[in-house]
């Protein structure tokens, strides 16, 4: 793998190339909205996720009101996101657990978060990073770029996460996903993206 000094330079180069695009976890008033929007964004573009989440939160402005809805009502609102029926079930179950077991307070503990319906390792880490915690959410964008730039030799997201934690200083952990996802969304053409990554890879 590359040195920490090189990796930091490469990350800065990625940041300069990326547009300031709003991500699914950005800009929500309440942390429960951040968590649910992040859950909804799995296998779905942020361009689709954000307006769909806005519709859902307009209809149900609190966890209690969301908990009073049905799976079918949620599914009809979020039908634009991929796997909307499964996500609707998870959202309904999540709202019920948060209201009844957590007094509508979202836990800021990784091990508690991944116990919740529909919340996997990536979703938990992206949520925690958005709340100011030092975590790395490894999604397809970060996985792809990390492998192309030699930050990791692994393909498993959990192993990539640990490789990145060892490579980058803790102060940059929460920024990794933000920067690389924005880069990936800025360059959707694979050929152009790979050309830029090849240029960045030779930075030392």
The count of strands amounts to 0
The main pleated sheet reads as:
none
**Which ranges are low-confidence, i.e. pLDDT below 50, for 5 or more consecutive residues?**
none
CATH homologous superfamily title of the largest domain: Hypothetical protein, domain 2
Rg measurement, Å: 18 Å
The domain count comes to 2
What is the CATH top level name of the largest domain?
Mainly Alpha
**CATH topology name of the largest domain:** Endonuclease III, domain 1
Fraction in beta strands: under 5%
Through-space gap between termini: 12 Å
The best one-word shape is elongated
Overall residue-averaged pLDDT value: 96
Q: From the coordinates shown, what is the CATH architecture of the largest domain? A: Orthogonal Bundle
Task: Write a brief structural summary.
With 204 residues, the chain is mainly alpha-helical.
Please explain how this structure is put together.
- 63% of the residues lie in helices and 0% in strands.
- It folds into two domains: 4-21 and 136-201, Orthogonal Bundle (Endonuclease Iii, domain 2), CATH 1.10.1670; 31-130, Endonuclease III, domain 1, CATH 1.10.340.30.
- The protein has helices spanning 4-17, 31-40, 46-59, 63-67, 71-77, 84-101, 110-113, 121-130, 140-148, 157-167, 173-186, 190-201.
- The chain has twelve helices and no strands.
């Amino acid at each position: 793998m590359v040195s920490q000094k090189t990796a930091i330079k490469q990350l800065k180069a990625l940041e300069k190339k990326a547009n300031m695009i709003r991500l699914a976890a950005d800009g929500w008033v309440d942390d429960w909205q951040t968590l649910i929007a992040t859950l909804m964004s799995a296998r779905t573009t942020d361009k689709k996720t954000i307006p769909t989440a806005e519709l859902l939160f307009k209809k149900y402005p609190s966890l209690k009101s969301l908990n009073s809805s049905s799976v079918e009502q949620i599914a009809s609102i979020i039908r634009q996101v991929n796997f909307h029926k499964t996500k609707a079930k998870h959202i309904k179950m999540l709202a019920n657990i948060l209201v009844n077991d957590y007094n509508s307070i979202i836990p800021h503990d990784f091990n508690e978060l991944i116990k919740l319906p529909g919340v996997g390792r990536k979703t938990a880490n992206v949520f925690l990073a958005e709340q100011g915690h030092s975590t790395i959410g490894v999604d397809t964008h970060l996985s792809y770029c990390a492998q192309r730039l030699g930050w990791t030799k692994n393909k498993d997201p959990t192993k990539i996460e640990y490789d990145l934690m060892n490579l980058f200083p803790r102060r940059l952990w929460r920024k990794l996903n933000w920067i690389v996802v924005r880069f990936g969304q800025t360059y959707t053409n694979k050929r152009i993206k790979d050309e830029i990554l090849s240029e960045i890879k030779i930075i030392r």
